[in-house]
Hints:
By secondary structure, this protein is mostly helical. It is built from twelve helices and seven strands.
Amino acid sequence: xxxxxxxxxxxxxxxxxxxxxxxxxxxxxxxxxxxxxxxxxxxxxxxxxxxxxxxxxxxxxxxxxxxxxxxxxxxxxxxxxxxxxxxxxxxxxxxxxxxxxxxxxxxxxxxxxxxxxxxxxxxxxxxxxxxxxxxxxxxxxxxxxxxxxxxxxxxxxxxxxxxxxxxxxxxxxxxxxxxxxxxxxxxxxxxxxxxxxxxxxxxxxxxxxxxxxxxxxxxxxxxxxxxxxxxxxxxxxxxxxxxxxxxxxxxxxxxxxxxxxxxxxxxxxxxxxxxxxxxxxxxxxxxxxxxxxxxxxxxxxxxxxxxxxxx
Length: 311
């Protein structure tokens, strides 16, 4: 065993005592500083968590609601007004994209439905103002079929243009057919979503909101069905009822909800459409719709842009 002399022992002991005192002194300093460091640490942690937390979504859709009230009048849309208010409009569009999937899953059916209807209408407006004024496209549809200011002149407007919602890119086609028609058993979406065209159901001058959506959809349905140029034209003199081509394109969507009555020699698709019309048409026409001997025809569809006509 190694023996250390007394002199060396005292030397080592002295060094140890000096080092111990220095360590204790350092610890005291750290203890005085530590509460500040702790506070800073927790402030950084809280800020980090708050940055990760999604911003609560405004289910009143107030930004969009204000823009609609300002720029939509009796179904006519002032697209120049939306361009002039583009900063506010973009804020609303950004809010649609910022919604997270967990947020969306926590919503009620009514909140989800209102969200997607408003998203469809907002994205359609975005497509128009991004191409405004619309120019004629050199396609068969653009040259021979669509009016020069029609949404149909915008290349890929439904299947290629992409917009952000719930953190993902979506097209108008997917939103309509892959979400609204697929996930909601709600035929009234067809009178709520607007395709920026004259024959399309009127764009409301207010946003759809969850706690009013049933009333809003009923109101839009009545307005559309009772529009003689858009929804339904009862012509007893010619024994015809002319309805929107929307009922021709999507008649099967109406059958499951509006098939309580059977109309004279009509197909299931026609029965569903007529059942919807019967529910919402004015009372003086109901008897004829239900029991009249008439042919069901379709109104011409005007794809012209739904903006105010110039004076």
